[in-house]
Amino acid sequence: MVYDTAKLLANELKNSVEYREFSAVKARALENNTTRALIDEYNKLQIHAQAAMIAGDMESDSLKKMQKIGELLQFDADASAYLMAEFRLKRMVGDVYKILAEAVDIDLSPLED
């Protein structure tokens, strides 16, 4: 029963406006090899920057590089649209995860900013 419901939820997510928008802009943004490389690097740096911020290092090289690449990507309409759509989709999935975690009394506070 739970797995059936999870499959229904997965289908709902796949048919959501957020996912459809993300899929459409992702294809456009990743067509350009330079943009694709910048987005890949931005995503890698984002993980390192988050780890540095958790450690209290607000001046890390990863954070600075990520900010510079983010500034470059803002000037590319397709890349900017992709990053915003990705953010909205991840926020929605995160919200769903929080709802599920609360239902079974799992503490997610260590994962929060």
What are its keywords?
single chain, 113 residues, mainly alpha, 2 domains, 5 helices, 79% helix, 0% strand, flat
Largest sheet: none
Q: What is the 3D form? A: flat
What proportion of the residues form beta strands (DSSP E)? under 5%
- Structurally, the number of domains stands at 2
Please state the average pLDDT score. Answer: 90
First and last CA, distance: 33 Å
Number of helices: 5
Structural class by SSE content? mainly alpha
Helix content: over 70%
Order of helices and strands: HHHHH
Q: Segments where pLDDT lies below 50 for 5+ residues? A: none
- The number of strands is 0
Q: What's the alpha carbon Rg, rounded to whole Å? A: 17 Å
Describe this structure in words.
- By secondary structure, the protein is mainly alpha-helical.
- The chain folds into 2 domains: 69 residues, no CATH class; 43 residues.
- The protein is built from 5 helices and no strands.
- Helix 2 packs antiparallel against helix 5.
- The longest helix is centred in the last third of the chain and has 27 residues.
- The N and C termini lie far apart (33 Å).
- The model has no long low-confidence stretch (mean pLDDT 90).
